[in-house]
Amino acid sequence: MSRLRRAVALVAVALPAALAAQGAPARDYIVGGGDVRFALRAGADQPLAQGEFFDFTTDLLTLSRRSFLAPAGEAELGWRLGTRAELVVSAGFARSSAGSEYRRLVGTDDLPIAQRTTLQRIPVAVGVRYNLRTPGRRAGSLAYVPTRGLVPWVAAGGGAMRWRLEQAGEFVFENDAIDPATFRASRWAPMAHAGGGIDWLVGTRTSVTLDARYTWARRAFPAAPQRPGTVGGFEGFDPLDLSGIAIRAGLSWRL
Questions:
Q1: Between the CA of residue 221 and those of 111, 191, 236, 241, what are the distances in Å?
Q2: Are 236 and 223 in contact (CB under 8 A)?
Q3: What gap in Å lies between CA 46 and CA 41, rounded to an integer?
Q4: d(Cα 85, Cα 97) in Å, to the nearest integer?
Q5: pLDDT value at position 10?
Q6: What is the model's pTM?
Q7: How far apart are the first and last CA of the chain?
Q8: How many beta carbons lie within 10 A of that of residue 149, not counting itself?
């Protein structure tokens, strides 16, 4: 089963259980709250895997761009700015790890020359969300009445992404020598994102939330290995393209 199917299966199992635990709402309004929203989502993140590094790697090794598809999660906190707008702070995590071997070379023992490639991305962003339908209204000074049904929304923001790329295993060097090695690089990259989704109210404070997002991020490789024991980094490639598309589902709570 692919990583995407595993991520979708996890969401499909977790959401009904969480919804069942909510039960019927005791009332149709929130007392002393409603202006703050907290959401947790899980799903899949597909890097576009464009550029020299990915072209070189997928040509040399038995990897494809789909090899970088990763399970992904995100936590989000939003503050109501007006009737429909929210200030949003979010942090996510996505990590892929795929084994491979050289496509056209084998070792002197006729065994594959194997290695593993790991790409980890941690985006941290601040942005604005605009609800296309009013998510709720104030009733007096203390009560907040959430909107029943679906609330579609769009969002955009920017921030930084902490990324880490590693290739470890056996590699072919000059004079056709085959030796174990680890190549590793990590740093921060500026990023921006845009997307949208739908919240579906299922309890007084709780909504099911669906999210699709496109992220732009690109950063040059560092000039030197980042940790002792590495044979080298990824010098010589153009900046690493970290852009991708994420689709997630989860739960959102009004606090």
A1: 32, 16, 9, 10
A2: no
A3: 16
A4: 38
A5: 47
A6: 0.83
A7: 37
A8: 8
Q: What are phi and psi of 238, to 5 degrees?
A: -70, 170
Could you give the CA distance from residue 62 to residue 226 in angstroms, rounded to a whole number? 26
Encoded amino acid at 84, one letter = R
Neighbouring C-beta atoms of residue 22, cutoff 10 Å: 13
Q: For the residues of 9-36, what is the DSSP string, one character each?
A: HHHHHHHHHHHHHH-S-S-SSEES--SE
In 3D, which of 114, 83, 85 has the Cα closest to residue 98? 114
Other CB atoms within 10 A of residue 157 CB: 21
Give yes or no for a contact between 190 and 222, defined as CB atoms under 8 angstroms apart: no
Query: Which residues of the chain, if any, have pLDDT below 70?
Result: 1-27, 29, 31-33, 140-141, 224-232
Secondary structure string (H, E, C) spanning 208-223: EEEEEEEEEEEECCCC
Token pair, residue 169, equals: 């295993």
Q: Which residues pair with 98 in a beta bridge?
A: 117
* DSSP assignment string, 48-110: ---SHHHHHHHHHBS--GGGG-EEEEEEEEEEE-SSSEEEEEEEEEEEEEEEEEEEEEE-TTS
- Hey, what are 92's tokens? 């996510």
Backbone torsion region of residue 110, taken as left when φ is above 0, otherwise alpha when ψ lies between -120 and 50, otherwise beta: left
Q: Residue 233: how many CB atoms within 10 A of its CB?
A: 18
Is the torsion defined by CA of 21, 25, 30, 36 positive or negative? positive
